[in-house]
Amino acid sequence: MWAEIICGLLIYKFVRRFFKDDEISDETSSDSTALFSVAHRLEKLYGGKAYVGLRIPDADTSSRQDIDLVLLTKGQVVVIGVKNLSGIVTVASDGSWVCEAGKHDTTQTYPDPLVEVKKQASVLESYLEQRGVTLLEENLSCKVVIPNPNFRTMHAFPSEVITYEEWKHLKPVSRKTLSGWVKGALWTGKEMQESSHQKLNFILGTAPMWDRVELKSSKIVLGEFLEFKGKQEDTLALKQIKRSKVDRISIQQTSMLGFAPSRLQVRYSYRDYRSEGRSGSESKEVTVRSSTEVVFQPRDSTKTKKFKLSSLLSISLSA
């Protein structure tokens, strides 16, 4: 009997080691995943292009300003803060948001998100000016989106704050049938010149951004790629992957269950600086052990995280 139990534990550890996705807390990944979910929905609703996880240089502080999301349409540059809050939210006298959630009534306080996003918009406006584009006041706006269905509040927020109840009722619209609310929310009705719009697309497409890893579990984590860890043979094969040259890495398994170590096919695409920083047509492949790991620093975390390559679909690198 004891032999069967021990054997079962050994099999469980083996399977868990090689086939279970790396554990990543919901708090670490859900906020990043929510950003992309909001971005995709806004693109469907209003068209244009959404840029996620920007890190815009701030000349005043000599640091980088994190921006969750910028939606660029023909008529607007919309700077959007996404607050994936779950719980009951109240507003303190200083404007900060207090969120109570969980079985143990955990309380977290957040600086006024609208004040923060307006500051981010100011930094972005200065950055665009430095790169040759001056926006009209009517072409730049700010929003805070709350996409979490577990968000609750009795507070009346300004029109710039889109609560979950408003968010879930948004519908696709055309410029000819814009409702008054949508006009006030995301559209002024005045289009930019085509040359300015193209230049903005190029600037935002080549602006500094957070790196991202996409897990097989459909989770996305924003942060900074640090290095590969593993057998020397594998890390040497991966040394050609440098962020100055490569912008996307995709991972595929090349062998099924068996006694031999599983191998992974790693394909990396070279960056094309002529096309908004997107991947060029040239790519290369290497094959490495599935035990190879990615060392990653998640956004808003003080601890690094190791992901097995076997748990990932892709890695996107900022220039």
From TrEMBL:
PROSITE patterns referenced in this protein's UniProt entry, alphabetically: NERD
InterPro entries, per database record: NERD (IPR011528)
Pfam families: NERD (PF08378)
Domain NERD: 30-147
PANTHER family: SI:ZFOS-911D5.4
Annotated protein name in UniProt: NERD domain-containing protein
Organism the protein comes from: Brassica rapa subsp. trilocularis
Gene for this chain: A07g507660.1_BraROA
